[in-house]
Design goal:
The longest helix is centred in the last third of the chain and has 25 residues, at 480-504. The radius of gyration is 23 Å and the shape is globular. The chain has helices at residues 30-45, 68-73, 97-107, 109-122, 144-149, 162-177, 212-224, 236-251, 272-276, 278-284, 304-317, 356-359, 373-377, 391-400, 413-424, 441-453, 455-474, 480-504; strands at 20-25, 49-56, 78-83, 131-136, 155-158, 229-232, 258-260, 291-295, 320-325, 364-368, 382-387, 404-406, 427-428. Strands 10-9-8-11-12-13 form a six-stranded parallel sheet, with helices on both faces. The protein has a four-stranded parallel sheet with strand order 3-2-1-4, sandwiched between helices. It has a three-stranded parallel sheet with strand order 5-6-7. α14 (391-400) crosses α17. The chain has 505 residues and is an alpha/beta fold. β12, α15 and β13 form a beta-alpha-beta unit. Residues 1-18, 61-66 and 340-344 have low confidence and may be disordered. It starts with 19 loop residues before the first strand and ends with a helix.
Length: 505
């Protein structure tokens, strides 16, 4: 909606500004846009609030920007804007995802400033209460300084969990007090209300102090402290101890307050491409709880060797499976995040071991690139989930009451996996990933069997049922997440009222 010389426009003409207007900024990537869109829905559902959802033109192809179908479903009180594309030609071809995203966010700051100025003007008193809050997600914390310069309160929407946030906020201290690579730290990292982490469990960008991504992440952690508060996509039953510990730290002024408002996750859709997907018809023919769903998110990528080992392990387990197969990469475990070229080969199933599809026909189903994940997880036939532990996928599994095999690949996913396995009791975890090594076919077969028909799997299944109920209760009328969301929305309305009052005087 903008050009290189023009800021993205304000909300469409004809929309009357409400008492409070909230600007939401989603980082590039569908995993960032989807939860931010859900936040936008809930913001305007509070009444007396409108919102503008801002995305980036960079990386907007292949469904990784702002999906047009999603845009069409947003309420009328949510406007959208797209920041113009910024050049990235000077970045190395092998630049990390985090480097690319944060470079886009940094270089688009002038466009963002122009957009905020135009929105401030269009929603100013006496007709409205100005821009009551600027809410970027985790990468957009880089932009909090712009909002502060314009006098707009800033809140970071953390699309991950609170333990991941607390870990990130501790990174500058680790950077200041240690000299070795974090994976070589001799002692575990112990944070209030969290399970202990090894240095090797920290996100990949933090494993090499010489990389540009490392400095980006450390600086981003510092900029988080510019926020007036954190809106976190988690809920009490998932992280009770961490929420309590963070509240104590916030009360002492160590960190801004955190509002646990989750879970935000997609719900099933009806009709259309999703309902007609062949994998759902295949699931209809399978017994209840018998199928293992295998999917590594929109960006997760396996190496050729790991793909072969996973295939062999699934086959050896004898368990039913539905596997979303994407193109492998021996260089990047997040190669699918922004799409990738594969020359003349356009079928990821062609990379599976020879004869695998034929040998497993009737027991398993491999589908290329995509499946309607929410519908799949909610299907009565699905009894387990091999997941990369991206937080969106994790919450979708929780909402469906499905236990997991935690197989982290990049970003904060190892932190999530540790929490799910050791604190929540929702997931088994392969040992091979602990050292970034290949998970062997023997381990895959053993873990799959245990998850689907073993005692540990049964215990996880019960925990999954409990969490599913707790997730629903969190947003009940008196639920903890609903109250937290109403509290932060109340702060925005107060800000709007104060701005309106100053404008009238």
């Amino acid at each position: 909606m903008g050009t290189d010389s023009e800021p993205a426009p304000p909300p469409a003409p004809g929309k009357q500004p409400a008492a409070a207007h909230v600007v939401l900024l989603a980082s590039p990537g569908v995993g960032h846009v989807l939860p931010m869109a859900e936040l936008a829905r809930r913001v305007v559902a509070q009444g007396e609030v409108t919102a503008t959802l801002v995305t980036y033109a960079n990386f907007s192809s292949a469904g990784h920007g702002f999906p047009s179908a999603l845009m069409a479903t947003l309420p009328p009180s949510v406007s959208t804007a797209v920041l113009p594309e910024v050049p990235l030609d000077d970045l190395p071809a092998n630049a990390r995802i985090e480097t690319r995203i944060l470079t886009v966010v940094d270089r688009a700051l002038p466009n963002l400033r122009d957009l905020l100025i135009s929105l401030l003007a269009s929603s100013s008193p006496p007709g409205g209460g100005g821009v009551a809050a600027f809410v970027p997600d985790l990468f957009g914390a880089w932009a909090l300084q712009v909002a502060a310069e314009l006098g707009v309160p800033g809140y970071v929407f953390r699309t991950t969990n609170l333990m991941a946030l607390l870990t990130l906020l501790h990174v500058p201290e680790l950077d200041r007090t240690t000299t070795c690579e974090f994976r070589d730290l001799p002692e575990p990292i112990r944070l209030p209300g969290c399970v202990s982490l090894r240095g090797a469990d920290l996100p990949d960008p933090l494993q090499d102090r010489t990389s540009p991504a490392y400095r980006f992440v450390v600086e981003s952690a510092k900029r988080h402290l510019l926020a007036d508060g954190f809106i976190v996509n988690t809920f009490d039953a998932m992280e009770h101890e961490t929420i309590a510990a963070f509240e104590t730290l916030s009360g002492k002024g160590v960190y801004p307050p955190a509002y646990a408002v989750g879970p935000f996750s997609r719900t099933c859709s009806s009709g259309g491409e999703k309902a007609e997907h062949g994998c759902l018809r295949w699931l209809d023919e399978q017994p209840d709880g018998s199928v293992l769903y295998v999917c590594f998110g929109s960006g997760g990528t396996l190496s050729m060797e790991q793909m072969a080992e996973l295939a062999a392990g699934l086959e050896a387990s004898g368990q039913k499976f539905l596997w979303v197969v994407r193109f492998p990469s021996d260089k990047d475990r997040s190669a699918s995040f922004f799409g990738s070229g594969h020359g003349h080969i356009d079928d990821p199933l062609s990379y599976l071991p020879e004869g695998f599809v034929e040998r497993t026909r009737g027991v398993g189903l491999a589908v290329a690139e995509w499946a309607p994940q929410v519908e799949v997880l909610s299907h009565r036939a699905v009894g387990g989930f091999v997941s990369h532990c991206g937080w969106n996928s994790t919450l979708e599994g929780v909402a469906a009451g499905v236990p997991m095999l935690a197989w982290p690949l990049y970003a904060e996913q190892r932190v999530n996996a540790v929490m799910l396995a050791e604190r929540v009791g929702l997931a088994l975890r392969p040992r091979g990933n602990d050292d970034d090594g290949v998970v062997t076919r023997e381990e895959v077969a053993a873990l799959v069997t245990e998850l689907m028909v073993g005692e540990k799997g049964a215990a996880e299944r019960e925990k999954a049922r409990e969490l599913r109920e707790a997730a629903a209760e969190a947003w009940a009328l008196d639920g903890t997440s609903r109250k937290a969301f109403e509290a932060v929305a109340g702060e925005w309305k107060k800000t709007a009222a104060a701005v309106r009052s100053r404008g009238a005087s």
